[in-house]
Write a structure and sequence with these properties.
The chain is mainly beta. Helix content is 11%, strand content 46%. The strands form 4 sheets. Strands 1, 2, 3, 6, 7, 8, 9, 10 and 19 form a 9-stranded antiparallel β-sheet that branches. It has a 4-stranded antiparallel β-sheet with strand order 11-18-13-16, with no helix packed on it. A 4-stranded antiparallel β-sheet has the order 12-17-14-15, with no helix packed on it. 19% of the residues are buried.
């Protein structure tokens, strides 16, 4: 099966016969937030303030080939490809060789190496957010080689009552948004001293920090009720 890219919902192979030859996916580097401090040697790592590192955007470069019947037809296709890739400010980038996850970013450049007799090799460069975004939510997680090192399957279903404390595990290395659903009519929770209404069948008003998150159920009606949480994994 030929490898291609899907960007902004358009499949490069189906639309333009675009075939990927090689790809370079550079892992993101850590953001340097070191700050010089008065009367102190060296610098202070400001990442300690939030107790986790942050990362720069990642660069992904594809080399692709196009074969058309002649140079004139190829030139028309190249114009269409430029419009496809360079017009969106930001969109989902899906590599058909890695269907389990995608990136979100923009295309920076489409550079043809030559245009000879209907053949051209393209170098396409994307700049994306640092994290891979998985296409399967955590509630559908299967025990496989990717998640095996975490040695845990996160709990996503809870029975909650007023005054209970539950632990929600964020297995990602970055804070993530999550959704909540259940059979409760109303629910308020306390997280790090702040009270939030837990929206039913929608996004919560706070994010889950990496690791275990202690959530106190301040009120829930009826009590007890069922709660299911879900989120999309993000990995470096």
């Amino acid at each position: 099966m030929n490898r291609t890219i899907i960007f902004n919902g358009i499949n490069g192979l189906e639309a333009f016969d675009l075939i990927v030859d090689t790809v370079t996916k550079e892992p993101p580097g850590k953001t340097d937030y070191r700050q010089s401090m008065p009367f102190r040697s060296g610098s202070y790592n400001m990442a300690k303030v939030i107790n986790r590192p942050t990362f720069d955007d990642r660069t992904t470069v594809y080399t692709c080939q196009l074969i058309e019947k002649d140079t004139e037809q190829l030139d028309k296709i190249l114009t269409a490809i430029n419009n496809w890739l360079l017009s969106p400010v930001e969109a989902v980038l899906q590599d058909t060789a890695t269907p389990e996850y995608h990136f979100v970013g923009e295309c920076l450049s489409v550079v043809p190496a030559s245009n000879e007799n209907g053949y051209v090799e393209l170098t396409i460069t994307f700049k994306c957010y640092p994290y891979k975004i998985f296409n399967t939510p955590i509630s559908e997680l299967e025990w496989d080689s990717i998640v095996f090192p975490i040695d845990v399957i996160p709990v996503t279903d809870f029975v909650i009552g007023t005054g209970d404390t539950i632990q929600i595990d964020n297995i990602c290395s970055t804070p993530i948004e999550f959704t909540a659903k259940g059979d409760y009519n109303s629910c308020t929770v306390e997280v790090n001293g702040t009270t939030y209404a837990l929206n039913k069948n929608g996004k919560a008003g706070f994010v889950l920090q990496p690791g275990l998150n202690n959530i106190t159920i301040e009120t829930v009606s009826p009590s007890p009720s069922n709660l299911t949480i879900d989120y999309v994994r993000k990995e470096l």
